[in-house]
Q: What sequence folds into this?
């Protein structure tokens, strides 16, 4: 019988996703690096990661500044499996959900997953607030200038041009 793919090698279907990473407790740079290394495995490969950015905290809660980045990953995990993997890493690194939008050791959010749109009680893709956040769009533009928001049908560059968020997002010098 002939292979449907036209080759003798079966390859698992991979998906391209973008994850937002943030930390504002402890050694923020180390927290981001640790989370990236914990993501790596048989089902997931980090293919690109942005520079690190010092970012002003948003919202009502008084808290330290964040360090943020965005990572591109290639994965065979479903969106739900990817969410659970991110939540496991957050838990493993000591994240506690005490104050909503409060300080955190690590925060891992699925921003985009292929061109999928998904809205369940557990997970929304694209991330519902990504297009309104400079701390997401600036690092995303750095590694994926061609990415398009699947609902708004706008490039990352266009989203940044239209944004009303003027919070400080400053690239960290390499060290």
A:
């Amino acid at each position: 019988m002939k292979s449907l793919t036209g080759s003798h090698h079966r390859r698992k279907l991979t998906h391209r996703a973008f994850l937002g990473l943030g930390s504002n407790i402890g050694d923020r740079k180390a927290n981001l690096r640790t989370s990236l290394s914990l993501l790596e495995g048989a089902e997931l490969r980090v293919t690109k990661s942005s520079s690190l950015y010092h970012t002003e905290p948003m919202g009502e809660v008084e808290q330290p500044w964040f360090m943020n980045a965005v990572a591109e990953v290639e994965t065979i995990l479903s969106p739900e499996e990817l969410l659970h993997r991110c939540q496991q890493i957050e838990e493993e690194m000591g994240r506690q959900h005490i104050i909503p939008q409060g300080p955190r050791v690590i925060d891992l959010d699925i921003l985009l997953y292929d061109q999928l749109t998904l809205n369940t009680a557990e997970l929304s893709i694209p991330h519902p607030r990504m297009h309104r956040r400079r701390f997401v769009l600036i690092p995303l533009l750095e590694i994926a200038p061609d990415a398009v928001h699947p609902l708004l049908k706008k490039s990352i560059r266009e989203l940044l041009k239209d944004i009303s968020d003027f919070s400080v997002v400053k690239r960290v010098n390499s060290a």
